[in-house]
Automatic annotation (TrEMBL):
Coiled coil: 36-91, 129-174
Protein name: C4-type zinc ribbon domain-containing protein
Signal peptide (UniProt feature, chain positions): none
Taxonomic lineage of the native organism: Bacteria, Pseudomonadati, Bacteroidota, Cytophagia, Cytophagales
Keyword Manganese: no
Amino acid sequence: MESTVAQKLDAIYNLQQIDSKLDAIVKVRGALPEEVQDLEDEIAGYETRLDKFQKEIESYEEDIKNLKESIKDSEKLIKKYQDQQMNVRNNREYDAITKELELQDLEIQVAKKKIAEAGVKIDQKKLDLDDLKAVMDDRQKDLDLKKNELSTIVAESEAEEAKLKADREKAIKKVEDRLYKSYEKIRANARNGLAVVMVKRGACGGCFNTVPPQRQADIREKKKLIVCEHCGRILAGVEDEIVEEKPKKKRTAKA
Ligand SMILES: [Zn+2]
C-alpha cells in the first residue's frame, strides 16, 4: 500500500519527536556520569598524593632511625678512643686519637642536625596530609551527592525511556525504508539531532534560515517531500499560529 506524502511526513515527523525526547533523556544523563567520573578521577589523584606523602613521612622516619644508629656507633667509637687515649705511648698517638674523637663528635652533631631537619619535614608533611584529607572529604561528599542525583535521574527516566523506545519501534514501522535511511543520515550530521523540522515564523526550524513564501506554500500542500535548501532537513509542515514556546529546560549550574 503506497502512502501519501502527507502520511509519510506525519510518520517521519512522529519519529523525529520520539527521537528528540530520547535525545533529551540521554543529554540530561550524559553530563552527570561525566561529572561523577571527573570526581572519581580527582579523588583517585588525591589518594595517590596521600600515599606519596605517607611514603615520604616513612622515609624521613627511616632516615631518623638510621641517624640515631650512627650516633650510637659514634658514641661507641668515642668510648673506645677515650679508653685508648688512656694508654697512649706518645703525644703523636694522643693527638691522632684526639682528631678521631673530634671527628666523631662532629658526626654526631651533623646527625643531630639532620634528625631535627627531618622532624620539621615530617611535621610539615603531616600538615599537608591533613589539608589533603580535608579536601578529599569534601570531594567525597560532592561525589556522593552526584551519584545520588544520577541514580535518581536514571530511575526517573528509565520508565520513560523504555516507553519511548517501544513507541519508536512502532513509529519506525510506519516509515518507509528509504526515507528512514535518509532520516538517519541527516540526523547523524545534524548537531541538534533534528532531521525533520517544521517551518516556524517563516524560517526552517533546524537552521533558522528563511523559507521563501512560495516554498512554504508548497510545503503546506504536502504533495512532495521538500527539504531545506540551506541545511537539507526535511520540512514536515508550516506552523501558523504564534504559540509562545516554553523555554527549553536548561540544567541549572550549581555553585
Ligand atoms: Zn534548514
